[in-house]
Amino acid sequence: MPVLVITGTGTEVGKTVTTAAVAAAALAAGRSVAVLKAAQTGVRADERGDADEVARLAGPVTAAELARYPDPLAPGTAARRAGMAPVHPHEVAEAAAKLATEHDLVLVEGAGGLLVRFDAAGGTLADAARLLNAPVLVVASAGLGTLNTTELTARELGARGLELAGVVIGSWPGAPDLASRCNVADLQEVAGAPLLGALPAGAGALPPTDFRAAAPAWLAPRLEGTWDAEAFRIREAP
Ligand SMILES: Nc1ncnc2c1ncn2[C@@H]1O[C@H](COP(=O)(O)OP(=O)(O)O)[C@@H](O)[C@H]1O
Ligand SMILES: [Mg+2]
């Protein structure tokens, strides 16, 4: 799995924190890691982007981003408003493929959810994943509403012939409500793919050394961690 595309059921679901955890677990397993933020929106030139945040939390990764647009909008819209060139899916795929020749693992983080548009032609992260023939990891929120957005995302991946590697819960609450607890079992059902981890709420605020030490315990063996989905489901079941 040299390239793994990381999308989410929406924005602010924990894609960046999850990308950092996957990177940290891979580093701990002795692998070299690159992180590619396809298009960074909503930050100025002097601010830290998602790729920088992954490097801060996870440690020595190659961090790259293809474009940066100031408005916090979908990349295609933000590029148009800024009068800047958009990022096309083939550019994302080419950059990821190049990084894959130099690293054991390349993590490609999208912007927002799967069908957020990158260019005027309607190109998306799904198109980049198709060009790369790469599996896709879906980061989902824990609570009410996540079953619908997760199933929609899984169905779109399936319709495009893309492999859904699994689902990671981006932020698992310290005191999960009924919906969150029921979702542990239902998420893998609606996704038709395994649950591959759950990051505790507050993980992104941990000191980086603590984050790196704990990350493997949040992720399943497929992501080089030690997290046990079945034990988690039983423990959190209502
Ligand atoms: N497990 C978590 N622990 C701490 N903060 C989190 C966690 N998941 C998400 N967040 C916070 O929620 C916000 C969105 O997370 P982020 O990973 O940037 O989402 P996305 O990349 O999907 O937009 C950020 O402010 C981040 O710090
Ligand atoms: Mg992000």
From TrEMBL:
GO MF, one term, reads: dethiobiotin synthase activity
Instruction: Please list the residues that bind Mg(2+).
Output: 16, 50, 109
Q: Which GO terms describe its biological process?
A: biotin biosynthetic process
The enzyme class is: ligase
Q: What is this enzyme's catalytic activity, as reactions?
A: (7R,8S)-7,8-diammoniononanoate + CO2 + ATP = (4R,5S)-dethiobiotin + ADP + phosphate + 3 H(+)
* Keyword set, alphabetical order: ATP-binding, Biotin biosynthesis, Cytoplasm, Ligase, Magnesium, Metal-binding, Nucleotide-binding
Which Enzyme Commission number(s) are on file for it?
6.3.3.3
Which cofactor is recorded for it?
Mg(2+)
Compartments where located: Cytoplasm
The record, for InterPro entries, names: DTB_synth_BioD, P-loop_NTPase
Which residues are involved in binding ATP? 12-17, 50, 109-112, 170-171
According to its UniProt entry, what is the function of this protein? Catalyzes a mechanistically unusual reaction, the ATP-dependent insertion of CO2 between the N7 and N8 nitrogen atoms of 7,8-diaminopelargonic acid (DAPA, also called 7,8-diammoniononanoate) to form a ureido ring.
- Complex and partners: Homodimer.
Cite the HAMAP family for this sequence: BioD
Q: What is this protein called?
A: ATP-dependent dethiobiotin synthetase BioD
